[in-house]
Specification:
The complex is a heterodimer of chains A (76) and B (272).
Chain A (H helix, E strand, L loop, with lengths): L1 E6 L10 E5 L6 H7 L4 H4 L3 E4 L2 E2 L11 E5 L6
Parallel strand pairs in A: 1-5
Antiparallel strand pairs in A: 1-2, 3-4, 3-5
Chain B lengths: L4 H6 L9 H11 L3 H10 L16 H8 L2 E5 L3 H13 L3 E5 L24 H12 L4 E5 L8 H4 L4 E4 L4 H14 L3 E7 L2 E7 L5 H6 L14 H20 L8 E6 L4 E6 L3
Helix pairs in contact in B: 2-3, 3-4, 5-6, 5-10
The chains are: A alpha+beta (76), B alpha/beta (272).
Chain lengths: 76, 272
């Protein structure tokens, strides 16, 4: 299946802003993060969205979905 | 018989400029503060020169509302410095600023109020001096303490609170305090080339949704570039002014994300 992955802030560095990804059916957010070497620890308080709705590490993606991953920003 | 405040101001009704020296002159004659003189002038349709170029973008009545406003800035670092500077220039009548910290050399890259000669001195004192230099017609309250959530009474009477903190636990405490007091909170956070802004209204839990209630987050990367802080702080101040004046579109239940490296701005819905 084909999903669109959007990354934000420093997750873009060395990766991409938006990219299509060809994945196995029922692939989870966690598995996509592993492919992209995004650490789960960092994303514990980040925001994960599928098609604009809040999702979790275990959420499964479907063909045509858009996954967006926002890392936490906390400095002042 | 000596003229009263309103009579003295009325003399300027048809003059093109009501300057700081005119204000000081009237303040001296009447014993009123500059803030009282400016307030009376705006009531009479006389615009202090310092606010002349605000008008058009905002009305004379709006300017007077700003002069009556009470706003708290929690944190006087990268974000807070720019925020205080802008609030003072806009003419916010009473600015209360919180910080317990002293300037260190690693603040010089981005903190507007910092200077080499101020290393080791109080951030609040530097902000107080700067506000006096910019606008002696407003009130600045320095609060020399770390915000921990136990100081909720100090935030009472504020119309808007600005989150310019640098850590998640204090941000969540501030969010909780503002919710209890029914005060809108304008949040900003920065890292590296990236910033985010949102406005949380009473009853909403936007910050808890953004940070998902995790209280022990400590970022590895503590870099912040000066323009990231300046842009994010300016967006926060724009939100504050719109909330105070009930104008325009506000980032309510929306998170604005700025990427100054890719030069993109995204707004995402932070709903359920």
């Amino acid at each position: 299946m084909l999903v669109t992955v959007k990354l934000f802030a420093y997750l873009r560095e060395g990766r991409f802003r938006v990219s299509p990804m060809e994945l196995d059916d029922n692939c989870t957010v966690q598995e996509i993060m592993e492919k992209l070497t995004i650490s789960r620890k960092e994303m514990e308080i980040g925001i994960i969205m599928i098609n604009g709705k809040r999702a979790s590490f275990d959420s499964q993606l479907m063909d045509g979905d858009t996954l967006a991953i926002f890392p936490p920003l906390a400095g002042g | 018989m000596e003229k009263g405040l309103l009579e003295l101001i009325n003399d300027y009704r048809y003059s093109l400029a009501f300057s700081l020296s005119d204000e000081l002159d009237i303040a001296g004659k009447t014993g009123c503060s500059l803030q009282e003189v400016e307030d009376a002038a705006l009531s009479q349709g006389v615009v202090p020169l310092r606010y002349q170029r605000n008008l058009g973008a905002i009305s004379l009545q709006d300017q007077q509302r700003l002069l009556h406003a009470k706003v708290s800035v929690v944190g006087c670092g990268g974000l807070g410095g720019f925020i205080i500077e802008e609030l003072a220039r806009l003419g916010i009548g009473e600015i209360s600023a919180w910080d317990y910290d002293y300037f260190q050399e690693h603040n010089l890259n981005r903190q507007l109020m910092s200077a080499t000669r101020l290393i080791g001195s109080s951030k609040i004192e530097a902000a107080a001096r700067q506000v006096r230099r910019i606008n002696p017609g407003i009130t600045f309250n320095g609060i020399y303490r770390r915000f921990t959530g136990d100081e909720i009474d100090i935030l009472e009477q504020q119309q808007v609170v600005i989150d310019a903190l640098d850590n998640v636990p204090a941000r969540l405490e501030l969010s909780d305090s503002c919710r209890k007091l029914g005060i809108p909170l304008v949040h900003g956070a920065v890292s590296n080339w990236y910033g985010q802004v949102t406005s949380q209204f009473p009853g909403e839990t936007t910050l808890e949704k953004i940070y998902k209630g995790k209280k022990n987050y400590r970022p590895d990367d503590r870099s912040v570039l000066v323009f990231t802080a300046a842009v994010t702080a300016s967006l926060q101040v724009a939100e504050v002014i719109k909330i105070l004046l009930d104008k325009g579109s506000i980032l309510r239940q929306k998170l604005l994300l700025i990427d100054m490296l890719a030069m993109t701005i995204d707004i995402i819905e932070i709903g359920g």
